[in-house]
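Dear Dr. H.,

I hope your travels went smoothly. While you were away I took the liberty of generating a structure for the chain from your last submission, since the lab meeting agenda had it listed for discussion. I wanted you to have the full record in hand beforehand rather than looking at slides cold. The sequence, exactly as received, is reproduced here:
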Amino acid sequence: MLGCGNIGHIIAKHQENCEIVALYDQVYTKARELASVCGGTAHQDFDSFISGDFDYVVEAASVRAVRQYAEIVLSHGKHLILLSVGALADPAFRNDLIQIAEASGRRIYVPSGAIVGLDNLKVGQISHVKKLLLRTTKSPESLGIQTRERMLVFQGKSHECIKEFPKNVNVSVALSLAVGRDADVELYADPDVERNIHEIEAEGDFGEIYIRVSNVPSPDNPATSYLAALSILTLLRNLERHLVVGT
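The corresponding predicted structure, in token form, is as follows:
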């Protein structure tokens, strides 16, 4: 586990076909606390952590942590599961990671996170998509904004939005990577919502798609949806299955 906050605790609580053996967080007390829950070893420095004997690193930290550690993870022969996929909005950084993964024979996994439908939307890689819009609504608190009424906080492309809200719209980058084009994003702050709401609109040669997901925020972290943690658990569960549905 790279990052030992709320999502790390959810993964530790529900782990099934995997074992958490090593944990690292820049705040060592967080790693130590989570280690007491899952039985793994908490590391005070990243070098000792990444030198451990394990196959996968689950990143649940931040976009900044991905940029700082992802290349090292792959070069040390570990597969990488990314939650902070917003880091891949930078094409140069993304291509560098892919090259390192290819050279080391490792893979980079991006779980569906707080949205659904990425499998079907991958058709955009082979069939033209003329419209791809993500409309996200969150509480002002989770966005660090104060407002008494619904307001549009951002409107533009996903690679621009992730720069301003790196903890809130990672799903926009996951959506863009799945479809193969930069998604349009509308981000709203609404004091009347109690859940994180993501609406996806896509149009193309295949027809029209509309998806609406209303997520319960993760305990102790309103900026992240509980579904995001569950999507990592689902990915881990299916890594070695002989029948995988929806890839």
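Two observations you may find useful: The mean pLDDT is 93. The longest helix spans residues 91-104.

With kind regards,
E. W.
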